[in-house]
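Hi team,

Filling in the usual template for the complex we talked about on Friday. All components are listed, including any nucleic acid strands or ligand strings, so the model treats them as one assembly.

SUBMITTER: L.P.
PURPOSE: interface mapping
COMPONENTS: two
RESIDUES: 828
SEQUENCES:
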Amino acid sequence: MQNIAVIGYGVVGSGTVELFEKNKEEICRKIGRDCGIKYICDLRDFPGDKYESKLVKDFNVILNDDDIEVVAEVVGGVTFAYEYTKKLLARGKSVVTSNKELVATHGAELFEIARQNNCNYLFEASVGGGIPIIRPLNKCLAGNSIEQISGILNGTTNFILTKMIREQMTFEDALKMAQELGYAEADPTADVEGHDACRKICILGSLAYGKQIYPQYVHCSGISRITLDDVEYAENAGYGIKLVGTVKPAGNGRISAIVCPRLVPKSSLLASVDDVYNAISVTGDGVGDVLFYGKGAGKLPTASAVVGDIIDCLKHHDRHIMLDWEDCTDPSYVVPYKQTENSMYVRIKAADADAEDLKPAITELFGKVMYLERNGRPDDELAFITPVMVEAKLDDALAKLSESAEIASKIRLM
Amino acid sequence: MQNIAVIGYGVVGSGTVELFEKNKEEICRKIGRDCGIKYICDLRDFPGDKYESKLVKDFNVILNDDDIEVVAEVVGGVTFAYEYTKKLLARGKSVVTSNKELVATHGAELFEIARQNNCNYLFEASVGGGIPIIRPLNKCLAGNSIEQISGILNGTTNFILTKMIREQMTFEDALKMAQELGYAEADPTADVEGHDACRKICILGSLAYGKQIYPQYVHCSGISRITLDDVEYAENAGYGIKLVGTVKPAGNGRISAIVCPRLVPKSSLLASVDDVYNAISVTGDGVGDVLFYGKGAGKLPTASAVVGDIIDCLKHHDRHIMLDWEDCTDPSYVVPYKQTENSMYVRIKAADADAEDLKPAITELFGKVMYLERNGRPDDELAFITPVMVEAKLDDALAKLSESAEIASKIRLM
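RESULT (copied from the run log):
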């Protein structure tokens, strides 16, 4: 039966169709019955496309066709995708998606509609591309209290940082290369400023702790201000720089979550995750640390997760899979990052020529810091790592320090 | 309701009880109803144990108690465990297990009994301890054609090899240390000779390709003959030595599977998996390479997987989860390893003093080989890597070479 539709015939959509059709025979064996893609919905024309006969422009054709059991929403964004998903679920059609923005902002509502209509809203492709992480976290690790989830969740920024660290390219040059290779979009803001990684850590935290974490409550900083000087200081001290999303319990039923660049010890596995690869480390009280690694984006890797979800929906037709979280409207659920504790790498430029003169003041403000070195460090520059401090106090100290020096960089430690 | 029983109160059994009781409140929330451990079955006495009141010696108490919905079989072996599992499944009670030997030898039969009785036989704990791999492979990666699964599947041997490589300990000393630390058993045969890893790769291959792969058809060699000389040659050439299980399609609906030590390029992720950690690399035609990493054994890591399966069974009471494979009685399903192609590291001891004299004969037998070096290589020793050859031809060449030299070691390349 032709019971599948794909909405959005872009990179992920075409990958989904390609992978499904390639492995169709084996997929139908796994589902236990004949299945097929009936419609591909896109407003654009694709003259001469192999699957042109399946193309429709009107979403309602899919919505009103009783044959359609599952729809892959790979449009992205929270306008059409949100409206379409609600309508489909309300009709009892399962939806699978790679749309991290939609899951991170409307997940709880959409799960509830799916539950009420005995269908499913699955989102394995929304985090880590093809890396299996949603089901492992929800099922395999369900016996654990999750102590922390940390991940390199954005391939574009990891590619840029890898080029900066391994080949001493500047941020600007590395970004340009990422755009030329198709890893970064023309407007790279969502990747570079950490918004994409933020949506993903919100999804993982929502799943692990059972309540929706809205991205707007999560502090998020990107990599656009990292310089090769910072890379050099970090390297010399045995650290790589990675954009890391982290979520963990913060006591009293609250959680803390943050996305920011971090100095990661080179001995850790996360430090060796290079290029467009992603890795997610989950710490449970039973299992200890487990790591999931693979290509975090791309046509076929993401399609792998979408097709996996399609198969699961068709195997569980008319049965709701419990893979969801509750809504949470309490704005204090996510502890403000200023109340969390961190150790910070700081690079300063002294207003006066000799930065060494500032060392007594630095000790007074931060306590005992560790100074870092690099070849040809200018006299007006200092880089150091602070002790672990509450962020608000760190900020106060930095504000005072900024009276006599420019705060050129600050990067949290892992 | 007290609806869970644990059979076997050893390391994994006690870990299962400990982890469940610790996270009980959260676990019941996930299941959506009250659940609890009613019985722990073991023939031994545990006077003063915290859960002594739950201990029973008679298996039939569990079998005949209608409250019991799911049983964790963590006894091991294929005698009692097999009999108990069949009886429980036949009564419609789900069974979860860490028993890789039972799953690898009787999996297909037990899945069929579970299917007929609308209950489940889950085995996430049987491979990779707490590392989620069974569900990810079965569900998240279901859209892929699996091109290969390779893994470091035995923590004990990986610990021994790590000590040999990083600290130049001999095999015997490293084994003794592993035994003292509780990683290796008094009789280490199953670990050291690769039988444990073999059962695990059989389980992964059965799941990936849908038909039972019986361990007796899989060629299996262990690490007991690896010397520090081999480690040194490998290191100098940029390789680590790991015990690796591999399974992949071999064409015409057949598969190839093997467990053996391998020279692994140091640049690969598998080479950096040390100590008792396990890692499993899965290659799919959509997803590319994904890697799963974590503690492959131990009390709480394994319990993490057992408890995860208990939760899944209780969430799906009276619903069969499709996580299984068919039986396969065709002995030709697994291609004999002598028909597969490999490149081989070979170390020889020449009967005459100068091994260099053998080089023309080696070229004639194997074609162009790559010679390796180590500090203070004796005149009577040579080590080289052969081109990729059919194993049967490799064996013929080695047999001919053995007329003029002792074949001291042979290790396949990755």
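MY TAKE: The radius of gyration of chain B is 23 Å. Chain B has a mean pLDDT of 95.

Thanks, L.
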